[in-house]
Amino acid sequence: MSAPLSPEWIAADWGTTHLRVFAMEGSRVLAQASSPKGMASLARDEFEGALLELIADWLPVGRKTLVIACGMVGSRQGWVEAPYAAVPCPPLQASAMVEAPVSDPRLSVWIIPGLSQTMPADVMRGEETQIAGFLAGNPGFSGTLCLPGTHSKWVQIERGTVTSFSTFMTGELFALLSKSSVLRHGMADDGWDAAAFSGGVTASLARPDMLAAAFFSLRAEGLLHGLVAASARARLSGLIIGAEIAAVRQDVSGDVTLIGAPALSAHYLAALKLAGLDGRTTAGESLTLAGLGLARRVLTENQKG
Amino acid sequence: MSAPLSPEWIAADWGTTHLRVFAMEGSRVLAQASSPKGMASLARDEFEGALLELIADWLPVGRKTLVIACGMVGSRQGWVEAPYAAVPCPPLQASAMVEAPVSDPRLSVWIIPGLSQTMPADVMRGEETQIAGFLAGNPGFSGTLCLPGTHSKWVQIERGTVTSFSTFMTGELFALLSKSSVLRHGMADDGWDAAAFSGGVTASLARPDMLAAAFFSLRAEGLLHGLVAASARARLSGLIIGAEIAAVRQDVSGDVTLIGAPALSAHYLAALKLAGLDGRTTAGESLTLAGLGLARRVLTENQKG
To answer: Which GO MF terms are attached to this record (chains A, B) (predicted)?
Structure first.
């Protein structure tokens, strides 16, 4: 039998649909675990139990282990609300972190707040921690970040401060249209066609205002010209991502830094190139851990000071 | 007991989800009936039965009664495929109508084909009959028609010929976003806010490319500024309709003639006004009957000739 784990601290990435935890020694991952007990499936008094299910064995008796959590766990429907920090501001401020109420004496849980923007109204929860992780490795960074996903974020940074951001419902629109709209009849569940994707991006870059008509044209292309299902899927993705890039293009100077899953980031890189923009990729998951680690250091120093 | 009905002919508006039939004497409606047996719920050999359920009592023995049908009944998944007529063409051509196979000797069923456009690929089924009905009362018409709905159509007409058209997934996008996306949390099922609608239209007219970001902003407005649910619903509608009008605005000259349900047409009128365009309304349902009546006359003359 191996010795029981006794991590220095615990990192938690707690989103709408999943909870992921990491037993940490400094910035080293000793163990990890996950469950489908995301924010959306839990009542307020169920969060502590959901966390203990995964980490109880990692908690030595007789001292408190610090848990740092980010994501929807800090929303109004979450464990405890961590009110948004308003931009312009750094992505992470120790003074804005909120302690969650716990019963277990071995636990001390702190939640990272999201960011808000007043006009145009916008919010993020979770991405701010990835941004903080990126900035930890790129201090004083100025430029444009893109975090593609269900709700893609485009974020302007000036010397480490988030000055503005914009959320596009890209991934959610793609899922709704490909699975629940009239387009589903001509749409594959998977497969890819890089040329069809590029065609969609190019069409939206030229006429982003035609998006809702370009969607229906996919249906008509299937009926009239036999557009195959995998191509329809890739073209739909290209139309939506192309419209997103068309909308932000004027605000981008220099390279776009992509923070996200490798496959999706590769699609964005191809789309950026069609818009005459350069991009570079980073690893999204490791940045979340880096951001949680930074939050831990800042919080610990703050509490000592 | 009243004398049995013996209509001269029968009009059928047969869409994806509903079948509506009208017992006709010339252009006069003697009786009407409907059922939820739309195209989507029927296998090929079930169409005749679904029709007879509604009209069997209207069919005298010893002669064939002509039934003229329009809509998705003529699609590839329908009773019999009535291949699209390609624009430019008049909305209705007797030679393109297709006879459906029937067993009942009292029936003669003809289906009106839809219209197609090669580039950009587009299709319609059902709307061509409303357009034909409108043109029957406005011979030689040139201008722009708008048929708002689940799949809104913008149609350019030159002296009675449909030269081009464009379909926007307006109603379907609105339903998906308001009922199935993250926006549903802040969205009422009904209610209206005319100022919020106008705000949405104006925002999309100014930045139609920002549509996917403007959607998410509704969520953020609810979280940050307490945007109420009925206002969120109206603003979402305004955003989608505004983007539609922004996209077609450059192709419109003169008034836009709206063919649709009164409440929806009133929203479009308000949106057109914000875009600096004039519109006028017509009654959609009576135009379908007028178009079916025109098809009957043309078909009958064709068969005599």
So the answer is: 2-dehydro-3-deoxygalactonokinase activity
